[in-house]
Design brief:
Helix content: 25-40%
CATH topology: Rossmann fold
Order of helices and strands: EHEEEHEEHEEHEEEHEEHEHHEHH
Shape: globular
CATH architecture: 3-Layer(aba) Sandwich
Strand content: 15-25%
């Protein structure tokens, strides 16, 4: 039985990952700021990295971090978002060094926000793992997080740059679908802005795939190969729900409501999972229609 440490274990991705690992007979150590009662023989909750002393780990999945979508990006909020990722990651690697733990592989989270946004709004460029970052907050947040995760050359760390993760029971998808389900808002802004997404099941399978990867590649975009824009998302979701939302939401309204954070909705980049595809990874949900139908109807 192989042992996996999961930080950020109570988050949307972490909770789905825990369920999968336990169903497939892994021993799981879950880090959370709040202690939980374990009802599973193969699950141990810890609230401090000091609990790792005398424990052997096969793999680590580092998902810890405050939700980026909750609350306006004030200066204090930005600092909290950075600290929740960078500080936890730093302490994780310090604990691994202190207790002489060297897992076979560490998967550390990041996001496609690393590539920033296309301010020209032409959206002709498609980013891959070699594309450059930008001097804007969401990109700098990812850069700092990744730099900390890759700071220990003795550990086999792989970075997972995630798109918007779609799945049941959490995440941002229910909020995105609600105005469509109510037959209200459809297009947001121009509607042409890229929407780069991935199904939660493919995220979990990508993690398991990277556990076994012998490649020297460090960075992986974990996104569906399907390139859609916001209006295409609305059209597919409307078809699934059999709705025809008619109200547009102008860009200036989003900017007034969300400030700088509106970049998450109004801007973006197309991103391709080049490294995963080159290594032979197969997406179970490569197109939006199949992904939404599975989530909504399952």
């Amino acid at each position: 039985m192989q042992t996996v440490l999961v930080t950020g274990a109570t988050g949307f991705i972490g909770s789905h990952l825990l369920r999968y690992l336990l169903q497939h007979h892994f021993q799981v150590i879950a880090l959370s700021r709040k202690m939980h009662i374990s009802n599973h023989v193969n699950l141990q909750w810890i609230d401090s990295l000091t609990a790792l002393e005398n424990i052997s780990l096969d793999y680590v999945v580092n998902l810890a971090g405050e939700s980026i979508g909750q609350g306006r990006w004030t200066a204090a909020r930005k600092q909290k978002l950075i600290q929740s990722r960078v500080d936890t990651t730093k302490k994780l690697y310090q604990a691994l060094t202190q207790y002489q733990i060297k897992p076979k592989c560490i998967i550390s989270g990041s996001a496609i926000g690393y590539y920033g946004v296309d301010f020209t709004e032409q959206w002709l460029n498609v980013c891959d793992e070699s594309s450059s970052p930008q001097a804007i907050f969401m990109s700098e947040l990812c850069q700092k997080w990744e730099a900390e995760a890759l700071s220990d050359p003795l550990q086999n760390t792989k970075i997972m740059r995630l798109g918007v993760v779609f799945g049941k029971n959490g995440g941002i998808l229910p909020q995105m679908l609600l105005p469509i389900k109510l037959n209200l808002v459809g297009r947001i802004g121009s509607g042409r802005q890229p929407m780069t997404w991935v199904h939660i099941d493919d995220v979990i399978q990508a993690i398991l795939f990277l556990f076994q990867s012998a490649s020297d590649q460090k960075i992986y975009n974990v996104v569906a190969p399907d390139h859609i824009d916001q209006m295409q998302f609305v059209n597919v979701a409307s078809k699934v729900f059999k709705r025809k939302p008619f109200l547009p939401l102008p860009s200036f309204v989003m900017k007034l409501l969300m400030g700088e954070q509106s970049q998450l909705v109004l801007n973006g980049q197309y991103v391709q999972p080049k490294a995963l595809l080159n290594e032979g990874f197969k997406f179970q949900y490569a197109d939006l229609d199949s992904a939404l139908r599975q989530i909504i109807h399952s």
